[in-house]
Specification:
The chain is α+β, with helices and mostly antiparallel strands. 35% of the residues lie in helices and 21% in strands. It has two domains: 2-229, ATPase, nucleotide binding domain (Nucleotidyltransferase, domain 5); 239-410 and 441-471, ATPase, nucleotide binding domain (Nucleotidyltransferase, domain 5). It contains 15 helices and 24 strands. The strands form eight sheets. It has a seven-stranded mixed beta sheet with strand order 18-19-17-16-22-23-24. A five-stranded mixed beta sheet has the order 3-2-1-5-15, with helices on both faces. It has a two-stranded antiparallel sheet with strand order 4-7. α1 (44-59) crosses α5 (149-158) and α10 (290-300) runs antiparallel to α12. The longest helix is centred in the last third of the chain and has 26 residues, at 352-377. It starts with a strand and ends with a helix.
Length: 471
Amino acid sequence: MRILVLESSTTSAKAMLYSSEKGVLAIKIETFLPEYSDIETQDAEGIFQQTARLGKQILNGQTVDMVALSGTWHSVLACDHSMKPVTRSYSWTYTGASSVAQRLRSNKEFVKKFYAATGCMVHATYPIFKLLHLREQGFRLEDCYFMGQGTYIFYRLTGQYLLSESMASGSGLMNIHTKQLDPDILRFLGVEENQFGKIVTYHDTRSLSEEGARLLGLKSGIPVITAHPDGSLNQVGVGALGNGVMSFSVGTSAAIRMSTSKPVLPEEPSTWCYLSPVAWMSGAATAGACNCVDWVKDKMFPAGTTYKQIESAEVDYEKLPVFLPFLYGERCPGWHDENRASFFDLTNSHSNVDLYFSTLEGVLFNIYQCFEVLCSINEMPTKIKLSGGILNSKIWTQMCSDIFQQEMECSKIEQMSMMGAAALAMELGGVLDDIRNLSVEQGVIIHPNPGKKELYAKKYERYKYWYNKTM
């Protein structure tokens, strides 16, 4: 079975040609053109055209049995009645709705009720608050249809207006218990259920349209799977759908997730609960990860400096400053979208190299904060599967294991979300009996250094001190 996987991530268009017999045949990744994306917002049609073009290039006239789509949680755009975009696509990084979310968070009763129903916090990340922000700017929501970037790509390829339940679960509009859009929340927003497309599972495929076929260089009629979030598909791709297995991805942002048989939420809003293709997920996500590391390299080092050159330098880990990695606001665990990044305990003796390494630590301390909360409401993981850009740095990967004092199994495949999308197609094509039985080759195991336990415990306490002081 041959599968084309298309992904529109936070920063890149991706295409993968996959064979169930031979594995990955080809992968292409292309950073979104600057005229299409400024990270916080995107030109929905431009992103679609760039992604489709990449798909056609990688196929180069070859045929496939199925097309699977991956996108990101929390994006939203408005379309007119002919399904043409009338706004940009607002990604998870968009902070324009911070004032709306901050105002609503002052109503503790609203926060508690909303969180219990949706598994989402009152935070600018979520589409519902972006739409509220648009309404307050004078935009007429009642005149539009709404979808995320991934759902828009599915519509452009099939002509069908469908929303995967996994994607819907990260919108702040779905009731996590009923798996349907929540009537009370729709009334609060002032919109109707039919403005968001029919919610379906990955079993509900639709046929590639003639226009979609032309753009990809395929024949029409090929089944297309609805767009699923990359975080949800990562859970599938790393083989973390079983109990006790935690997926840990560190890319542009970072997330930790555990599969659960029912919705799991703490009393005090801190983690989130969404849907994977087959179950619920209890998880946490941070806004700052590789994007913070890219920032410190680009802003504080000469052009052309490589990560390898920076990480080859000697540093005194005990004397590094503290970095709160909120360049893009805070998501978990505090959900303060208005929070901003800071260095603390900074002196004139610190160098740009010190700031780089403290950034690596700060990102991981933020995730470790989330890890503590997640483990308090779930069982401790029996296995942690690490994936994402962090694996490009041996130093950062080892630091991760040392801070968590846990073994980390490193993914052998770089694009695990795309692998997860391929797994959905293989199940639907009869190659897999169940995506929960996807065989994933074990990667390299990183073992924690017990000698670093006390050092990082003390540094983590410093991190929490400054975190609490700035709240």
